[in-house]
């Protein structure tokens, strides 16, 4: 179950936050999952790109993690 979906500034990447404790990076044109980001111990409630678009910040209640994208 996706809890949040966000496009990057160019609209060429999409990040999802999920109840399965992962965030995923997607190609919105093809629907292909490009990368699965793991590391949270509970549901991820939010995911966002930084201003440069080279990092994804994910969060759950009381915790944050940063991941570098594969863009």
Write structural notes for this entry.
This protein has 71 residues and is mostly beta strands. The strands form 2 sheets. It has a 4-stranded antiparallel β-sheet, with no helix packed on it. A 3-stranded antiparallel β-sheet has the order 5-6-7, with no helix packed on it. It is globular and about 30 Å long. The protein starts with a strand and ends with a strand. The model has no long low-confidence stretch (mean pLDDT 85).
- Can you write the helix and strand succession as a string? EEEEEEE
Portion of residues within helices: under 10%
Strand content: over 45%
Give the termini distance in whole angstroms.
24 Å
State the total count of DSSP E strands: 7
Largest sheet, in brief, is: 4 strands, antiparallel
pLDDT averaged over residues:
85
Strand order of the largest sheet: 1-2-3-4
- Taking pLDDT < 50 over at least 5 consecutive residues as the criterion, the unreliable ranges are none
């Amino acid at each position: 179950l996706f809890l949040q979906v966000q496009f990057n500034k160019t609209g060429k990447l999409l990040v999802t936050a999920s109840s399965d404790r992962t965030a995923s990076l997607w190609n919105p044109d093809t629907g292909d999952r490009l990368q699965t980001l793991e590391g949270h111990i509970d549901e991820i409630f939010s995911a966002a790109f930084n201003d440069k678009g080279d990092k994804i910040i994910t969060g759950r209640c009381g915790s944050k993690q940063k991941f570098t994208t594969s863009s």
